[in-house]
Amino acid sequence: MFKKILKSYDYSLIIVVALLCIFGLIMVYSSSMVMAVQYYGQEADFFYNKQMRSLIIACLAFIVTALFPYKALQSNRILVPMVFLSLLGLTLVSLIGNVTNNAQSWIKFGTSSIQPSEFVKLSIIIYLSAVYAKKQSYINEFNKGVVPPLFYLILCCVLVATEPDYGTAAIIFAIAGTIIFSSGMNFKNIFKLAFIGVIAAAPFVLLLRDKIFSDVRLGRVDSFLDPFSSEHGYQLSNAFIALGNGGLQGLGLGQSIQKMGYLPEGHTDFIMAIIAEELGFLGVSFVLLSLGFIVLKGIFIALKCKDPFGSLLAIGIASMIGIQSFVNLGGISGVIPLTGVPLPFISFGGSSLLQLSIAMGILVNVSMFVNYERKYKQKEAKQEVQPEPQSYADRFSMNRK
């Protein structure tokens, strides 16, 4: 039994995640060593050591969640404490949070800190997946099957937005939207939700327009429209220079010019610019292909999974990585305004790395169950004449009719 389970794990997914984390650790050291010395008065490996400790903890979390049966996450014994802790974390941030880059998003513990909003992304995925999986028999009943789970989503988005961290709030909302769209409810309810959402959000936007459209955020729009002439475009302009310097093979690992004080915080949101400058098109391609592989693998797992909860979990995790990658890369390349979102598995940040590792452990566990049932359960069931459970793709098509 145990041997069959080990054979059912998707080792290609595990290897890609491991390679991305190791690559990210190397690039955190390369991109942060100058800033650690010049701006923080620390040793060159200061950020590297912090990321290394975070990676060790993240690896342990990945192993635990990869072995832990994902179906147990659907239990109220896990869902209720998870919802409570996520709301408690967001509330504590608003009360005693530490302000960094104009956002009160971190809770400090000595020399370490934690960002609760990162873990809210995963809690939203688990909660909505569990609730909508249980409501499959009446998913198209608007008042009973569609609306109730959304109160938790709205409360989380409001609390994150008040930090203020509108970028993370928008990502949480987009991830939830992907799960809702994939839950099997018909298009009529989806359009009704979208319409109600726009009507409900309009008064809040008008009331908080001074905070939402502050000088800092409008400056990000100005830098997006014209980074080289805007007073707020310094960081984006230097990111463009770094992207252009790399060419095909890059200047060489550790040889970035922009990290010498020209590109602030190059080890966080702008780490892809340093990767492009040092490792060129080849380094960028490795990151993009690896992230793309994880997203496509997550969608493939969701389509093959015959359990609604597992399907929605896989879709939610894949969408989280895909959306966050797009927002980060779109920001540093000038496709969309900057939002301060880290690049998954690569950027410096313990909270992000830990949350992503837990999410990937869950995805690997879902994949294991899919492979196990396909390889072994079907062989055992051949002797019995039973209708085969529907895959996610079949259920999705039927619910849309």
Automatic annotation (TrEMBL):
Enzyme class at the top of the EC tree: transferase
Catalytic activity: [GlcNAc-(1->4)-Mur2Ac(oyl-L-Ala-gamma-D-Glu-L-Lys-D-Ala-D-Ala)](n)-di-trans,octa-cis-undecaprenyl diphosphate + beta-D-GlcNAc-(1->4)-Mur2Ac(oyl-L-Ala-gamma-D-Glu-L-Lys-D-Ala-D-Ala)-di-trans,octa-cis-undecaprenyl diphosphate = [GlcNAc-(1->4)-Mur2Ac(oyl-L-Ala-gamma-D-Glu-L-Lys-D-Ala-D-Ala)](n+1)-di-trans,octa-cis-undecaprenyl diphosphate + di-trans,octa-cis-undecaprenyl diphosphate + H(+)
Pfam families: FTSW_RODA_SPOVE
GO biological process entries: cell division
Membrane topology: Multi-pass membrane protein
Documented EC number(s): 2.4.99.28
Keywords: Cell cycle, Cell division, Cell shape, Glycosyltransferase, Membrane, Peptidoglycan synthesis, Transferase, Transmembrane, Transmembrane helix
Coiled coil: none
Transmembrane segments: 12-40, 52-70, 77-96, 116-133, 145-161, 167-183, 190-208, 279-300, 312-332, 352-372
InterPro entries listed in its UniProt record: FtsW/RodA
Keyword Cell cycle: yes
Disordered as annotated region, ranges: 381-401
Subcellular location, record wording: Membrane
Protein's UniProt keywords contain Membrane: yes
Tree of life domain: Bacteria
Family: Belongs to the SEDS family. FtsW subfamily.
Matching PANTHER family: CELL CYCLE PROTEIN, PEPTIDOGLYCAN GLYCOSYLTRANSFERASE FTSW-RELATED
General function of this protein: Peptidoglycan polymerase that is essential for cell division.
UniProt name for this protein: Probable peptidoglycan glycosyltransferase FtsW
Organism: Cytobacillus purgationiresistens
